[in-house]
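Q: I'm writing up a methods section and want to include an example of the input and output format. Could you take the sequence below and give the corresponding predicted structure tokens, formatted cleanly so I can copy it straight into the document?
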Amino acid sequence: SLFDEPLAIAVQGLGPRQQVTLRTSLRDETGELFQASAHYQAADDGELDLARSPALPGGSFSGLEPMGLLWALQPQKPFWRLVKRDVQSPFLLQLEVFEGHGERPGRLLAQAQHERAFLRDGVRRVPVREGRIRATLFLP
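A: Here is the clean output for your methods example:
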């Protein structure tokens, strides 16, 4: 998906009202790790849809925040900022589902990797160097 588009996150196949912890992580271009986690409880049918299920207290955020696992990403190194210099390569987002809640995650139940791209297919990046002007033109 594109970096500025909403990402729908859902988990299927859980037990009825099963408690799980979801964690996202990514590494920036320098290799620094950013992570966020949230506690959830599956619905009666064993499904968890972040658009309908509020995060429970105890994680990086709480409440109904479908994109919370992305906006709450925090660096492991204090005062580090997530910066993207090469917009031609995507960020690789790791998504993990762990059993239960608590300080230490339980058993890993599922994991996935998702690419968050910055350029739509067909967009061309053209560096501009004219006198003292330095810019980048994106076409179309």
